[in-house]
Write a structure and sequence with these properties.
Blueprint lengths: L3 E12 L5 E7 L3 E7 L20 E7 L7 E10 L2 H4 L2 H17 L7 H15 L4 H15 L22 E3 L4 E3 L11 E2 L2 H12 L2 H5 L5 H19 L4 H9 L1
Parallel strand pairs: 3-5
Antiparallel strand pairs: 1-2, 1-4, 2-3, 4-5, 6-7, 6-8
Helix pairs in contact: 2-3, 2-4, 2-8, 3-4, 4-7
Bound molecules: zinc ion (ZN).
Zinc ion binds next to loops.
């Protein structure tokens, strides 16, 4: 791979020995990229390394391959957007941190998806504005599940295809979608779900982000959505996220 230049959102920064740092980006054209930047820290004095190296900064990076390694060398890293309004609010900051951490945990190196890059950028833009951070996080989760092919089936019973909605269906984490009353035997652990939650998830999946971000939901739907998506992501991503705990703590 020759020298490449691309835009990327910084997902994670790890300090290495001496003056180097390891950065994980989600880039526009190359998906998730990991690279080392040398000579940016003040040795043992652990100086601040600049705005371009802060999580969820949008940077333009120049990088090239190292022999036989999946970790690149990043030779240049220029800040394009620091998303200052997010950093001025602890609430917004914690949701933005959660969003990049979630993206980092569900994607692997070489996963390439321009729509995922657009999604994260859109989410950070909306978090910078007046949109509710909680709502932006829920829409991000639903749309990300869709882009990763993990979206639960919310329009019919995953077992028999029934979509009459005659009786309120239940939600199966294991089978990834709704289960009608006749099919409850396939998952005894299926949980109840509000019609409003089903409707909202279908709406978000099929609407542009900005439009979805304007829809307010009843508080019980909001709470159920948060709980259900959390359990679904935990179940399917199999990883607890540190930031979830942090958001709970500051809430
Ligand atoms: Zn069924």
């Amino acid at each position: 791979m020759p020298i490449q230049k691309n835009e990327g959102i910084l997902l994670r920064r790890q300090d290495l020995r001496e003056t180097s740092i390891l950065l994980t980006f989600y880039t526009k054209d190359f998906g998730k990229v990991k690279g080392i930047v040398r000579g940016v820290r003040g040795g043992s004095r652990a100086l601040s390394v600049g705005a371009a190296y802060e999580p969820f900064a949008l940077d333009e990076i120049v990088f090239y391959e190292r022999k036989d390694r999946e970790i690149f060398t990043i030779s240049q890293c220029d800040l394009l957007n620091y998303f200052s309004p997010i950093r001025a609010s602890l609430d917004k900051l914690s949701y933005a941190s959660y969003i990049v951490e979630l993206l980092d945990s569900v994607t692997s190196l070489s996963d390439k998806n321009g729509e995922v890059f657009d999604l994260i950028l859109k989410s950070l833009d909306l978090l910078s504005g007046d949109s509710s951070p909680r709502r932006v996080a829920r829409i991000f989760e639903i749309k990300l599940l869709g882009l990763l092919g993990l979206m639960p089936n919310m329009s019919e019973c995953v077992n028999c295809g029934d979509n009459s909605g005659a009786n309120p269906p239940r939600f199966s984490l294991r089978h990834g979608g709704l289960i009608c009353r006749k099919c409850l035997d396939v998952d005894k652990m299926a949980v109840s779900i509000l019609p409003g939650t089903v409707k909202y998830m279908v709406h978000v999946r099929s609407s542009p982000f900005e439009k979805a971000a304007m829809v307010k939901v009843a508080s019980e739907v909001g709470k159920e959505l948060e709980r259900l998506l959390r359990r679904y992501l935990d179940y399917h991503v199999e990883r607890r996220l540190k930031t979830v705990e942090f958001i709970k703590e500051i809430a």
